Amino acid sequence: MRITMxxxxxGTLTGALLVAGSAQADRSDWPDNFTVGTASQGGTYxxxxxxxxxxxxxxxxxxxxxxxxxxxxxxxxxxxxxxxxLGLTTMGPAAEALAGESPLAPGVPMDNVCALFPxxxxxxxxxxxxxxxxxxxxxxxxxxxxxxGPAASTSDTYFPAMLEELGVDFxxxxxxxxxxxxxxxxxxxxxxAFAAGIPIPAVSQLEVQTDVNIVEFTEEExxxxxxxxxxxxxxxxxxxxxxxxxxxxxxxMWNFTIAGCDLPEDFVYEITKLSLExxxxxxDIHRSAATSVPENIEYNTVLPFHPGAVRWYEENGYxxxxxxxxx
Length: 327
Prior knowledge:
- The protein is of the alpha/beta class.
- The chain has two domains: 33-120 and 255-324, D-Maltodextrin-Binding Protein, domain 2; 122-253, D-Maltodextrin-Binding Protein, domain 2.
- The protein is built from eleven helices and ten strands.
- It has helices spanning 5-26, 44-60, 72-81, 91-98, 154-165, 177-185, 201-209, 219-228, 265-276, 279-285, 307-315, and strands at residues 33-37, 63-67, 86-90, 113-129, 144-147, 170-173, 191-195, 212-215, 232-236, 248-260.
- The chain is elongated, with a radius of gyration of 23 Å.
- The termini are far apart.
- It comes from Billgrantia gudaonensis.
- InterPro entries: TRAP_TAXI.
């Protein structure tokens, strides 16, 4: 039987209308719009979150966009209360929020926050000048002046506690990374403890101007920090800096997308499906999305996954531990 082009087009259109009609019927409880909590403009969170929001809005035909916020802690609070549907956070603030230890709402367990999918890692790394003689964490002298980045940042929140756990005695300093790099070079501080994406521009600039040491964790120090904090093992590739001759052992904190646990399951399922089945488009938003893949769900050791996300993972052969499912 000969099929005409007209019949093909008619059939295609009919099929598309049926799919659209079915999708529309499934959207009866979907929100009319949504907002993704990001962080300050110019940072990775803002670029990633705003681009992700636009992808969702365009592909799922729901009005939405990114919103400038104070970052992980505020995103957790706003998603918990329902003021934001979606957001971005790191595992450290998530653990504190779930335990009712958020600095924004002490004593209030934020249990209406669910994980969707992994974003990327934020490594913790230490840099000193070569002539300081500091080649290991144990070499850091008592009373060393250590720059931990901007006040209340992820670095400033967790790196001091990690070094205290490892027995380091220090004076705490804060500032922007470029400013701290200049202070290190001028001898005003002794160490910079970074939690930031690599390569860190301040370190790259420093090693062009002077000789530096990039201090790695020993296996024992790494294990001790892994036991005490919501971080993961990490190696800074030797290719990251001219100074490194081989990979340097470190730790990192994973970033995850989050959603209100009470959002409709079908809505979150479609968001998860869109995000994880189109990694090329996610990488177009920000290159850090190269690690926004389902294989990295194991690094959520804190939050329950949203039931909609769990459905996508299990349909695609990924097992979610019972303790990471919503009770």
